[in-house]
Amino acid sequence: MKDVKLTEHLEFLVSHRGQDEATVLAHALRRGIDSLYEDTLVEEFLLGRVARETVLRELGPDRLNEIEYQRDTLRREVGWGLKGA
Prior knowledge:
Layout: H1 2-17, H2 21-46, H3 52-59, H4 61-83
């Protein structure tokens, strides 16, 4: 059933963007790979397998600050939760 919806979405994009199917699919593939790359880069950084400088260069200072803020907040919350255990 998901394939039907995917096909419908593709047809919608083709007709509303005025682009051929190959162009729409190429754009979708690019966005998907970019998204997966960013997700994997963040995961590897948080696991200590990618340098901070790499994340800074690839994602920029604002995104790096957001990642570090979320990581530090989670660590504080877990530490707080473990104190009561």
